[in-house]
Write a structure and sequence with these properties.
Strand content: 25-35%
Order of helices and strands: EHEEHEEEHEEEHHE
Radius of gyration: 19 Å
CATH architecture of the largest domain: 2-Layer Sandwich
Structural class: alpha+beta
Shape: globular
CATH class of the largest domain: Alpha Beta
Length: about 250
């Protein structure tokens, strides 16, 4: 049988989602928990390979298992063995051809900025603190420029990508009290893309970058031209969207 899990985590003490030898990762902890519950050595697939220190509310993973446990019991057992900064919110049995990564239509991310002259102990390592007030209107205008299909190589990490074209479905910046939130959805993202877009938008909001310069950055095609990178701890994978909506109906509220 094949299963999908909806997973959330605080990524502060992990070296990203993807398994790495000798260091803690989200994938590694999930696979260890599955082995403790089922006795099986499985390799899971995640919808998004979040960076070291980044978080998730709506990560999706898929894997095969021969467990006969009722699904609700399986989820409870996994949460018993997982560290407290990783939680399985819900689970589903899925068709054999489902793949958490390849089956996804789009992914949604949020970057959280605490725009305040004073820090918050509750948001430490969960939001980027900026004391100077941001011009959210200018940032919102910049976010709209990102929408559509572009060569996003300027916002990619130094490793780049063989095909840097991506399609951003929507992007917006909003202020909620002391928080400034950058939300974006795309078919997929390049390594560091959201963090580099965030950093460029912050420069817009601080008056260090003109809208015309931001557009030139989008259009230049040079890998890593947006050299500023927002720290990972403000980044959250919030949702992964799939074509079969009925399959996952209501599971985010589980």
């Amino acid at each position: 049988m094949k299963f999908a899990l909806l997973v959330e985590y605080d990524g502060t003490r992990y070296f990203g989602f993807q398994y790495q030898t000798g260091v803690p990762t989200i994938q590694g902890e999930l696979e260890k928990a599955i082995k403790k519950v089922t006795g099986e050595m499985v390799r899971i697939k995640g919808a998004g390979r979040t960076d070291a220190g980044a978080h998730a509310k709506g990560q999706v993973v898929s894997f095969e298992s021969e467990t006969s446990l009722p699904l609700a019991n399986f989820v409870r057992a996994l949460n018993f063995y997982l560290p407290r900064d990783i939680a399985v919110r819900a689970g589903r049995e899925v068709p054999s051809d489902f793949d958490a990564r390849r089956s996804a239509l789009s992914r949604e991310y949020r970057y959280v900025i605490l725009n305040s002259p004073t820090p918050s102990s509750l948001l430490y390592r969960r939001a980027l603190l900026l004391s100077k007030r941001l011009d959210v209107e200018r940032m919102s205008q910049g976010a709209k420029m990102l929408v559509g299909e572009h060569n996003f190589a300027p916002f990619a990490g130094s490793l780049g990508c063989r095909n840097p074209r991506r399609r951003i479905l929507w992007a917006e910046v909003n202020r909620k009290g002391k928080l400034v939130l950058f939300d974006v959805e795309a078919d997929s993202f390049l390594p560091q893309q959201v963090r580099r877009m965030t950093a460029a938008l912050i420069r817009l909001g601080l008056g260090k970058l003109a809208l015309e310069e931001f557009q030139e950055l989008i259009d230049c095609g040079k890998v890593g031209a947006a050299r500023w990178v927002a720290p990972p701890y403000g980044l959250y994978l919030t949702r992964v969207n799939y074509p079969n909506l009925e399959l996952f109906a209501g599971w985010e509220n589980s």
